[in-house]
Amino acid sequence: METTPRALKVLDTISAIMFVMAIGMVFFYAPTERVMGQVQRVFYFHVATAWVGMLGFMAAGVAGITYLRSSNRKWDIVSLAAVEISLVFFFVAIVMGSIWARPAWGTWWTWEPRLTTATVVELLYAAYLMLRQGIEDPDRRARFGAVYTILGFISVPVTFLAIRLFRTIHPVVFGASDPGAEGDFSMTPPMLQTLIFSVITFSVIFISLFWHRIRLGNLAEKVEQLRLKMAQ
Amino acid sequence: MTPDTTNYLILGYVIFSTVMIAYLLSLSVRNRNLKQDIELLQELEQDAQKE
After folding, report:
1. Which residues of B are less than 8 Å from A122 in CB distance?
2. Torsion, Cα of A114, A116, A118, A119 (10° steps)
3. Residue A83: helix, strand or coil by DSSP?
4. What is the pTM of this model?
5. Residue A125: closest CA among A98, A160, A154, A96
6. How far is the alpha carbon of A167 from chain B, nearest alpha carbon, in Å?
7. What is the ipTM of this complex?
8. Residue of B3, B20, B35 with shortest CB distance to A219
9. pLDDT digits over A98-113, tens only?
10. Alpha-carbon distance A53 to A66, whole Å?
């Protein structure tokens, strides 16, 4: 049985150290925001998990294009891994955003453009996982997955741009918010440093999890091949 | 005056931790199960070859 590569173990260790440092910065380095209070600390991981979610959906789309060009099933494994991890991170981002919204907006949820498009993205990729399971032929499943992730990726820039294109109460982190935005705040240098460090940390964690999930996909592929061999 | 929103902060990070731990456990369990499946299938394959 293959063992975990040394590089992956090193990456796991770096991820864990960076994660502890990010937690330390969020709770002990970043100052408390005066208007919102402690709940503003949710913002650092909310932005970082949303970023990683979008990064993964983009990686899935790129892997989908590569699969269609090469017909190599390893790219389907890569695409599936990216979608699964991104779904988890994007879900966390949506939930953390909702928790922040309760004291900031006075409601857990509102159907404004960013929240609506983010929910559409999450449901779209959740459907991808479910629909894949209904296709038995591995090549057909991989082709379907590739086309789906390429088309599905269109929804990601729409979500990213939603707060810049439409009237919305969701604040813009970088750039000018809509005048109607609620919960907007100006970041002090320690807040900005904490946010940037959190985004980098979650990007490293994503790479580490992505590698683990691809290895898991390779094992599942091996099991599928052995089962087919036994059935013949 | 700064409002006390600590409860929301705690709730946010508890949910974050719960989801992440559940996902890491899921990866670990699936990894273990697949390795067991491979071992079993390889044994069955070897038995079939002997027969």
Report:
1. none
2. 160
3. helix
4. 0.92
5. A154
6. 27
7. 0.91
8. B35
9. 999 999 999 999 998 9
10. 20
- Token code pair at residue A52: 């990683």
Q: Which two tokens stand for residue A223?
A: 């099991």
In total, the C-beta contacts within 8 angstroms joining chain A to chain B are 90
With CB atoms and an 8 Å threshold, state whether B45 touches A103.
Answer: no
Question: Which residue in chain A has the smallest CA separation from B24?
Answer: A209
Q: Is A36 left (phi over 0), alpha (psi -120 to 50) or beta?
A: alpha
Which of A44, A68, A3 minimizes the C-alpha distance to A197? A44
CB within 8 Å: B12 and A219: no
Q: Do B8 and A212 touch (CB under 8 A)?
A: no
Cβ contact A202:A51 at 8 Å: yes
Q: Which residues of B touch A45 (CB under 8 A)?
A: 12-13, 16
CA distance A63 to A147: 10
Q: What residue has token string 């090549």?
A: A139
Place of tokens 């982190």: A173
Amino acid at A84: E
Contact residues on chain A for B8, CB-CB shorter than 8 A: 38-39, 42, 99-100, 102-103
pLDDT tens digits along A42-71: 999 999 999 999 999 999 999 999 999 999
Half-sphere exposure of B24 (CA within 13 A, CB side): 11
